[in-house]
Amino acid sequence: SELHQLHRTAFHFQPSKNWMNDPNGPMFYRGYYHLFYQWNPYAAVWGNISWGHAVSKDLVHWHHLEVALAPDQWYDMYGCWSGSATFVNDGKPVLVYTGWSNVPSSPDRKVQMQALAMPADHEDPLLRKWVKAPQNPIVTAPEGIDSNFFRDPTTAWVGEDGKWRMLIGSQENMTGLALLYTSSDFLTWKRGSAPLHSVDSTGMWECPDFYPVPLLGKHGLNTSSNGKDVMHVLKVSCVYDYYVVGTYVTSNDSFTPVQADLDAGIGLRYDYGKYYASKSFYDGNKNRRILIGWVNESDAEKADIAKGWASVQSFPRMVWLDPHTNYSILQWPIEEVESLRKTKVSLESLPLGKEAIMQVKGIKGAQLEIDVDFQLPEQIQAEAIDVSASNVELICSEKGASRIGVLGPFGLLVLASDDLVEQTAIFFVIVQSKDGLKVLVCSDQSRSSLETNLDKTSYGSSYSLKGGQTYLNLHILVDHSVVETFALGGRVCITCRVYPTKAIDQAARVFVFNNGTVPVLVKNLVIWELADVLIDTL
Ligand code: DQQ
Hints:
Blueprint (H helix, E strand, L loop, with lengths): L1 H5 L11 E12 L2 E9 L9 E7 L5 E8 L9 E10 L3 E12 L2 E14 L10 E3 L17 E2 L5 E2 L5 E9 L2 E9 L6 E2 L5 E3 L6 E9 L15 E9 L1 E10 L4 E4 L10 E2 L6 E8 L4 E8 L5 H7 L1 E2 L1 E2 L3 E5 L7 E5 L7 E12 L3 E4 L7 E9 L7 E2 L7 H7 L11 E7 L7 E10 L2 E9 L14 E6 L6 E9 L2 E6 L4 E6 L11 E6 L5 E11 L5 E2 L1
Parallel strand pairs: 1-22, 4-39, 29-31
Antiparallel strand pairs: 1-2, 2-3, 3-4, 5-6, 6-7, 7-8, 9-11, 10-11, 11-12, 12-13, 12-14, 15-16, 16-17, 17-18, 17-19, 20-21, 21-23, 21-24, 24-25, 26-38, 27-37, 28-34, 28-38, 30-31, 30-37, 31-32, 32-33, 34-35, 35-36
The chain binds 2,5-dideoxy-2,5-imino-D-mannitol (DQQ).
2,5-dideoxy-2,5-imino-D-mannitol binds next to strand 1, strand 5, strand 15 and strand 20.
């Protein structure tokens, strides 16, 4: 229906139609960014998985190309699953992906194995045609590993000995595994003597990602970089995208998390909302590391079929190590978003007393970038609420945006109708937890749409309130049915999907509110309307 098409995004990447999931093989090559993605060319549900392909000069304006990999070989006949790009031999790109097939000897048993593809013509900057290696499959499941749990090869990197290394996601007796493989020629791969990392009871590790970040600075590093000023990030996807920062010693391929209690699969998350199977790449064009993640729908499958499409990719984010810790990363929308900015409104020093709510005038629509600083009062008064990683989401929903609190809830309502019956609330609450003062960051979707049959789960996370911290920042991208929140300078990210029926397009409004009894101040607020990005086909 027409309403459904209004939920299509304006500047988040989408295929022309049908189902999409994981981003695959992102890279910058000869002037173009390439994005591949898990795509069903024939329906708006998962299946027939091929690698869709698009290129861009700026990671914002995309052009669709023909399918790069289709399930047309015996070893990938049921699907070309996730994988990564690596530059080999003088910067020539190759793709390694997972083929889903069956074993010729027992046709009912599905298996996963890794396959290699090369550009038909690496002089073509668009890399339009890909050729699968005659040697495929290049890696099959080793002894003791279930071939149903053997997938999603990472970008490869070179170790001290000059050999290539890559990770493959797996599990053994519910222990999540990042299996290490080494090679001299990219065709023959040998299993390392131990996995690079594993964590008990975390289940299958899908889509591992492993990359270096500088100890200091925001710049990106080539995936093979290492040294004393370098830390490594390991991300795995198991229900959510979890990451852990550690030190990686290439001489013995040991990876040691700096904080054992924040280990992969149990600790920090890239995003506390809808965000999965993400992948990063080193952007040699702008010397930074970029992260892209799959943002699934929150509506029912039959709604996806009706609208003819499902899923978007997150807006590309830059990632770097938080200079205040050595165990967490920061994320921020890439600066290219600025090229989309149109009308701007801003305001300063707006006091918000108890139960204050105010519409931000002069701006409307469902395509916005918002930046706001809330100033905290000198005297912090906090409700006694004990928050932990396991209860924070529940607290965000039980203590939603409309409740009267003490210092918070205060924040923004986006995609709000004039009468406020529809609204998506992004807000803060200051709480006194057993382990100190915390800021709750919540994304409350409970009133986001009058439509039922949607998953309106609230999302959230918490962060320790530092002594001397005087303001709290929210940076938000709103794009019709996606709201991506970067809170506290990119320390906490939350992405959600919402499907308003009234607060659509030009009828969508923004409000600031404070439902705490303690007054807060909007120190400054800036909102830009963002332009459409037309994704064409080359
Ligand atoms: N999606 C792919 C798999 C991967 C999963 C299949 C993660 O390769 O493990 O479409 O979403």
